[in-house]
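Table S2 (continued). Query chain:
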Amino acid sequence: MAEKVLVTGGAGYIGSHCVVELIEAGYQPVVVDNFSNAVKGKGDVPESIRRIEKILNTTIEFHDLDLLDRPGLEKLFEKHSFSAVMHFAGLKAVGESVEQPLRYYRVNLTASMNLLEVMQAHKVHNLVFSSSATVYGDPQHLPIDEQHPVGSCTNPYGKTKYFIEEMIKDHCKAEKDWNAVLLRYFNPIGAHNSGMIGEDPQGIPNNLLPYVAQVAVGRREYLSVFGNDYNTIDGTGVRDYIHVVDLAKGHIAALKKLKDSCGCKVYNLGTGNGYSVLQMVKAMEKASGREISYKIAPRRGGDVASCYADPQLAEKELGWKAQFDLDRMCEDLWRWQSKNPTGFTNGPAP
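Corresponding output:
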């Protein structure tokens, strides 16, 4: 019998790519999502999930469920025997979190507490948590390893990730039979090589690459580059971009790690390479064969000059290493964007 894994927020960008990898690795994912960052397809199933069913010629159990709905969550755990949970669900826009901090604290923290308590009540003690490099705040040294201080986050979104990490760590300390892997992502980009699923931000993209791709496809007029006076190679911000499929494979490695009764572990998922905004624009111009217009704008509050990972611990302890280079990330992103110029709202899969 295939192990059942609950995937919260499984219709979103990273969650959906993890669903693909789970199925390919022989697990049976059960997906819950509240459509806060997903598009409804036929039969009230997220379009991303519908397309995965098509790519893999399978069926996926889906529930329209908000983790704030505690009774609904209880009902789900009564119905299924899960071997583990992958927790992606949460609000995730940095800028919005600065404008609506209470909403971010209420949704992200309450959802996670509900999930942990229901897991505990139903004796499900294995968790992979989708965290973020934002927990590190302004880098005190580069590259950033897992020993880098955490908690001095520059925005409420990052603070919610930090608080949830702390909740999980404290819970694992109190409950010795719990195992959790906290994965701190750097900057996921790219898409599944089918071009059928990818990142489809609702509204104006908050992240660089979806915005660049939308400029390339003609949906946006130009890119605003926030700041060109940082102490970096060309004055623009430097980040560690990782292919979303590499990231998803990291989650499968984390799931296997839970089997070792590992307690609570923390790993960076990144490539260890930093690229500037303008280097990313050039890479996307190469992938798309189109010129990408941009304008220099003032720096954004809360942005740091450079941020890239030391991913060696994940390689050593999880046997995981990012495989895809920058060209491949941009080619896969462009395949998704050019096949789906308006994202999932195109309707049926291309």
